[in-house]
Amino acid sequence: MTTELEILSTPPAATEFSALRDSVGWQNPTLEQVAASIAASLYWVQCRKEQQLVACGRVVGDGQMYFYIQDVIVHPDHQGCGLGSIVMDGIEQYLSAHCHGGATAALLAAQGKEAFYQRYGYALRDGETLGLGMCKFY
Fold first, then answer.
1. pLDDT tens figures, 1-16
2. Residues ≥6 apart with Cβ < 8 Å to 132
3. Residue 129 carries which DSSP code?
4. Which of 45, 99, 116, 138 is the most exposed place for a label (fewest CB within 10 A)?
5. What stretch or stretches form a coiled coil here (predicted)?
6. What is the pLDDT of residue 1?
7. Residue 115 DSSP SS3
8. In angstroms, rounded to a whole number, what is the distance separating the alpha carbons of residues 123 and 109?
């Protein structure tokens, strides 16, 4: 018996999103901060099996010039099944419809996942043409 996959373009609940982040070893702020962050997102893709959140991704930014892909996560028990591609396909459809001339779509890839995003046309910032990407964690 195969489990049907449900793909939604709505945000998950803060508790299940936090649990999915935990499943891949990512830290979470308070549940209130997670809920506020979810609400401030521009777009979501979530994949569910048996009503459980097994993968997701979202777009954050100003909705005009800057779009950032965040939290592309596949639960470890469901990795290698193409769910990351399903999430990115949904995100790319959203970006194609909402990014206009002069807009930038960007992301911070988890170490070792760069090639996955290169398949979608994202370029490495190797420090030669563009500066290296930077971030600060709190």
1. 457 999 999 999 999 9
2. 125, 126
3. S
4. 138
5. none
6. 45
7. helix
8. 11
| Closest residue by Cα to residue 48 from 4, 11, 82 | 4
Indicate whether this model's pTM tops 0.70.
yes
- 92: three-class secondary structure by DSSP: helix
More confident position, 59 or 128: 59
Which pLDDT score, from 0 to 100, does residue 2 have? 57
Tokens encoding 69: 């892909």
In angstroms, the CA 29 to CA 47 distance is: 23
Tokens 């508790």 -> residue:
15
Tokens of 36: 């506020």
Which residues is 61 bridged to in the sheet? 67
What is the secondary structure of 23-89 as a DSSP string? HTT-----HHHHHHHHHT-SEEEEEEETTEEEEEEEEEE-SSSEEEEEEEEE-GGGTTSSHHHHHHH
What percentage of the chain exceeds 70 in pLDDT? 99
> How far, in Å, CA of 29 to CA of 51, rounded?
25
Cross-sheet strand order for the sheet of 66-74: 5-8, 43-49, 52-61, 66-74, 104-107
